[in-house]
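haha ok so turns out i had the wrong file open the whole time. this is the CORRECT one, sorry everyone. sequence first:
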Amino acid sequence: MLVEQGRAVFGSLTVAENIRAAGGHAVLAGCLELFSPLEPRRDVRGALLSGGEQQTLIVAQALACRPRC
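then structure:
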């Protein structure tokens, strides 16, 4: 899984929808638990997040894909 340096979130989707798009419903709770600052922002559109929050969301999306080493 490649995590790009730019802000590659789906701006029109909420935080929860962005994570679900990457890994499905089953991984949403785990990602929000791991990245707890995103939990209160779960219903906020990606375009409205700060730069740091967008980067956190991108890493959460990458982990939602369940990468293997």
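The longest helix spans residues 51-64.
again sry for the mixup
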